User: Which sequence fits this backbone?
């Protein structure tokens, strides 16, 4: 299964949740970050450090995290995807291969544009619920462990808005490992 994390920001600056990142890196757990341009600009050093690990993928989540890219013109969509790829490549030294629409909102036209640019659109199997402040670590853990099936793509947030993710994640990983699951990069999960 693939662990993915959205690293996004809208108008308020957001920063990498170091508790989550440190845990994943220390245990060498493969994971994928979907990063917006706004977030990348505020977290360049942290993203550069994460990109140095071969078990960490940084992928494209749009330049500005507009939750309704389906309302944009074709050119605006291209700008959101291509310019963010250029920005991330400048920080990490790697171009992105996957694209995740903000909030998962998309239409066939947007998907076609992403694919024309060479990206595979990837979302998630089910939402973890971690951006809800009222979702306790126990609630997130119970929900994820009840819903998870082999081959799933899990989504959490690593932008300071996964309020209880750092607390829940080690328990989720441990429980899934006891069930025989292993974690892979998104590229490996999709191959």
Assistant:
């Amino acid at each position: 299964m693939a662990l993915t994390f959205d690293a996004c920001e809208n108008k308020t600056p957001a920063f990498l949740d170091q508790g989550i990142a440190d845990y994943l890196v220390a245990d060498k757990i493969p994971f994928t970050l979907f990063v917006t341009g706004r977030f990348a600009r505020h977290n360049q050093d942290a993203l550069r450090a994460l990109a140095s690990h071969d078990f960490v993928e940084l992928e494209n989540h749009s330049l500005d995290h507009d939750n309704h890219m389906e309302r944009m013109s074709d050119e605006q969509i291209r700008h959101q995807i291509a310019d963010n790829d250029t920005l991330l490549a400048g920080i990490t030294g790697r171009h992105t291969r996957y694209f995740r629409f903000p909030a998962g909102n998309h239409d066939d036209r947007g998907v076609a544009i992403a694919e024309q640019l060479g990206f595979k659109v990837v979302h998630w199997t089910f939402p973890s619920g971690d951006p809800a402040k009222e979702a306790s670590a126990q609630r997130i853990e119970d929900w994820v462990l009840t819903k998870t099936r082999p081959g799933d793509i899990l989504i959490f947030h690593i932008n300071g808005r996964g309020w209880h993710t750092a607390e829940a994640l080690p328990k989720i990983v441990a429980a899934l490992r006891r069930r025989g699951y292993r974690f892979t990069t998104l590229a490996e999960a999709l191959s």
Q: What stands out?
A: The domain at 2-190 is CATH 3.20.20.370 (TIM Barrel).
